[in-house]
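Reopening this one. Same input as before:
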Amino acid sequence: MYRFLLSRQWVILTLIALVLVPTMIELGFWQFHRHERRVAQNALIADSIAAKPLPVEELTSPGHTVPRSDYWRPVTATGTFDTAHEVVVRRRTSADERVGVHILSPLVLRDGRIVLVNRGWIPAAADQHSYPPVPPAPKGEVTISGRLKADETTGASGIKDLKGLPDRQVMLINSTQQAALIGREVLGGYLEQTGPEPAGDTPELIPEPDHASIGAHMAYAVQWWLFAAGVPVGWVILVRREKHDRQTAASSGTKGNDTPGTPETDPEAIQATPSL
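Same output, byte for byte:
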C-alpha cells in the first residue's frame, strides 16, 4: 500500500523533510536566544543609566578593560582638554543616520592621567583626506558628565581598523592606541559626553542608547517553529493524497477491465448470431 514511499522521488522528499525540521527548530532557538540577549541588554542599559554618577577614576584605570556590567554607567570627569591630540573617528552616523565623524578629545585629569571623551558627531570633511572643521573644546578646567564605554575593537564592533589614514583620523575609539600616540597614561575605555550641552548645538551629543525596543526576534522564533511543525504535517498530507490517487487509479483500471463486451466483440453474442 505504501510501497511508493521507496521510490526515488519520495525518498528524496522524505530526506529533505528530515533535514528541514531540525534546521528550522535550530533557527527558532537562534532567534529566541537573540530575543533573550536583547531583553537582558535593555535591562542592563536601563539599570546602568539609572545608577548614581561616579567619578570616572573609580570605575576604570590605565589598561583596564571596562566590564559589561559597567557599560553606560554615568560618570563625571574634571580636567582640561588637550586639543593638540584631538582626533576624529571616521564613518560614524548621527541620530538621523547622516554619515560623519565623532570628535575624540583627551581630557587631562587633575592627577595628570587622561580619559578619552567622545564629544559628539559632526559632518565629515568634503573629501576623505581633509580634517573637518571641529568645534573647539571648552577652555580651562571643566567637569564633564557622560556614559562609560568600553574600548572599541574590530572583533566587537565589526569596524575594520584601517591603516595609513590621514593625520588625526582613526577608525576605532581605543585607549591603548591613543595612549601610544599621546605618550601618557590613558584610562581604559572612554567617556561618551552627555553634558554640558555644547555651545551652538554642535557637536551633536550621542543620544541615549535604545533600551525600549525588543525587536521581532521572538516572532521570528515562533514562525520558524511553526514551519518546523508544518513540515511533517505537509508530508503526511502528501502521502495520504498520493495513496488516494493511486487507489483511485487502480480502481478505475479494474472497472475498465470488467466492462461487458459489445455484441460485436462478445464471443457469446457472435455465436448466437444466425448465419446467412
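So the earlier flakiness isn't reproducible anymore. For the record, The two ends are 54 Å apart (CA to CA).
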